[in-house]
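Q: Could you fold this chain for me?
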Amino acid sequence: MIDHKTALERARELVAQMTIEEQATQLRYNAPAIPRLGIPAYNWWNEALHGVARAGTATVFPQAIGLAAMFDTDAQKEIGEIIATEGRAKYNMQSALGDRDIYKGLTFWSPNVNIFRDPRWGRGHETYGEDPYLTSRLGVAFVKGVQGNGKYLKAAACAKHYAVHSGPEAIRHGFNAEVSKKDLRETYLPAFEALVKEADVEAVMGAYNAVNGEPCCGSPTLESILRDEWKFEGHFVSDCWAIADIHNYHHYTSTAPESAALAIRNGCDLNCGNTYLNLLIALQEGRIEPEWITRSCIRMMATRIRLGLFDEDCEYDAIPYTECDTKENAAAALRMARSSMVLLKNDGLLPLRKDSIRTIAVIGPNADSRECLVGNYNGTSSRLTTLLEGIRAAAGEDVRVLYSQGCHLYKDRVQGLAQPDDLLAEAEAVAKLADVVVLCVGLDGTLEGEQGDVGNEYGSGDKPGIELPETQQKLIARVMKTGTPTVTVLAAGSAIRVEDGNAIICAWYPGQAGGTALADVLFGKVSPSGKLPLTFYKDSSDIPDFNDYSMTGRTYRYFTGTPLYPFGFGLSYASFAYSDAAYDNGAVSVTVKNTGDCAADEIVQVYIRPEGSKWAVPNHSLCGFARVKLAPGEQKQVSIAIPEKAFCVVNDEGEFVRDASRFTLFVGGSQPDARSVELTGANPLTLTIEL
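A: Sure. Below is the predicted structure, expressed as structure tokens.
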């Protein structure tokens, strides 16, 4: 691959031919053409969170939080590779036809590696959950898949939103996240560091908020960590209109030229927004040096060079549009959807047996919803299968499927002229007629997502708490009253308190194949294998104040209460036995046996707890995981490398130090906490090691 040094050298030669005015135009997301130099227009803004987004037909994978539930780095890399292929296919077609609009470039502003510290955050489903280690591993794999290993970048990934960003959405444009040095280094920065150092991520996006008083897109502290400490060599882009926030909402500066000057001085190369229209004014006012504009322009041109956009021999130029939305990619989306679903409860009702069922009632506002499949930052699939459609197809001709929407997603009635609760009677009726109910509840991207602003079409944002909307609570109560055996399916991107039902499946926002995948799980074609990448709490009172960015009391590492469903938890139709755990030469080995009667995947998890450390987290930390496929009766030895940093803790100065010599490692299918043991009936194996 063309390295940064070579790309920067070529970029310097190109930029040296530009006037300062031309250089400044290239620092806006919608960079215009420079015809005299043969440089075409380029729009830097594109999205690919779980598939190429917002520019027509593309494969839609499960939302990022669902991908996290797979605990599968190989799958993450495969998804990144598919996204890059489809992105190139679309780019080649569009640019050949002169279409260089927004969402049609090769610079994808994904992945989102912020930490999902609070379940109320509307954008949490864009992340890989609450754990920095899991987020790091999945993010690195995704970036490597997107960027490829050819002569050129197949596409350019972007680590966002740097840094300490996870709501509240309503005040994000002026919010100051106050964070300790320990929490910053222990929780909020590790994923960004990993993507820079291990995956050579091409871009980093600055967040809207400030951190300890410094707006992220003009922060000398964050810039020094990124460039000086981590040696980041790519380009830095602002979140959209975040530079304007510096004067409009943070009031850190007074005018647009001042904000532009602050941002470019502190290494923000590209402006998503229009504040960099003021760069030349800032230059005229003596607020910046021309060399700063040149420096950023060189970085932007270097990325285009690494993408092969100025060369004739780029190996990806030949990818045809027909490589987009293929049957092979659709099959991958189905595999990922199956692997992402988490079985939270099962009293024996699942898997359903068609030979003993005559009628299934599929009920709920998400049963026939396309919105609940796609999450946000999504493309348009030509192959969407709703939950109802998937169940109906799998049930076949001999099983009657009855359907009732039951209620609106959040309004008190479905029909505007009707009385409140206008479909509850129908829901009760079909539930009574059925042998089993599949109750499809939850949220979608119109209820939890990004704050509605110029860059997002949804008028959505954070949740007030962890309860379902009242109308759905009424529906659940009405169905439960019938006594018909019920599978509750939760389609959501965050922790929601759902306890009713003989079985409960968390389906997330499962992507284009969501309905088929759910049916495959319901009828036992595949065993559920997902694990929760975040803690499901029992009550909103368990969660600290939303504006408090201290980790105290948050996530499985710091929460001292009893969760409803713990991080790392997920049931299976099979059962697994662990034996012969050992630690040697930096790796944990363990034998895992499928003691059940169906083929299944198991996710082996390793947690670490330093003994006697004054700076260790209160509980334990994930430090390794692996997904293993096992036939009935089959056993495999699994080896999981444990990173050196796992044996370190972060002190109050934000330094990784080793202040313990004795460590306990827990190896099994869940955390070692009491609630996980209660729900699974199994204790992880324990290893004590001295280093």
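A (continued): The chain has three domains: 4-323, 334-534, 576-690.
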